[in-house]
Amino acid sequence: MPSNISAPHATTAAERENAPESTRQAHARQVRSMFDSIAGRYDLLNHLFSGNTDTRWRRKVARTLDDVLVNPRAAVLDVACGTGDLALALDRQGTRHNHTGARIIGVDFCHPMLKIARAKSHKISFIEGDALRLPFADNYFDAATIGFGLRNLASVSDGLFELRRILKPGGRLVILEFSKPVIPGFSQAFNFYFKHILPRIGDTLNGSCGAYTYLSDSVRKFPDQIELARLMRASGFDQVSFRNLTGGIAALHIGSRQ
Questions:
Q1: Which pTM does this prediction carry?
Q2: Whole-number average pLDDT of the chain
Q3: Which of 8, 163, 166, 247 allows an S-S link to 30, with CB 3.0 to 4.6 Å?
Q4: Residues near 215 by Cβ (< 8 Å), separated by ≥ 6?
């Protein structure tokens, strides 16, 4: 990361909800600048640090929406799509066995990330846009996903309300996010790795000044499985459930628009 760009300071979702608008906007600008700077190595480091487990997690998201993805009349939005890996997993799930598949659209506010995504697929539409002000009409999508992006938003609650807005009644949201490990012993080891090892290696390999320290801190300060489910219900989602992945390192949260 260039020396004139600093990573944002990780805060809890509650702290951001109560922050003035100017602080939220500053957070968003810093997050965008940070991802602009690490875009080139983002995929490599993600796969390296997770042992490619992140790829398996994305496939689980896609399988969760299988009935929607095989419908050629359906539209599915991947928010905070980054370099496009989740959108690609959704498209592969929908087009297997020669299905035409649903229309997949990815949206992100980081232009360098989108350039990488567009190079991976000319079929999927990748659009530059803000997750808190999505450039789509109300009641438009049959399903939406957001993978490892919700914790970076200036307001988690506003992001959830916006995701609900663009879904059709009965449309489903699937959130893939790092969470809180639930296995004793394993939880302590994971937390040590995420707090002390990953940031040091990531920032060294990326030549950055704090990006992976921020990413690590943002995971630790993000709501746990039960709290995120509560926030989804408070934002108008029904039939909310979650499933732990790899012992709770990550979790899938699923909800439907009422």
A1: 0.90
A2: 89
A3: 8
A4: 199, 202
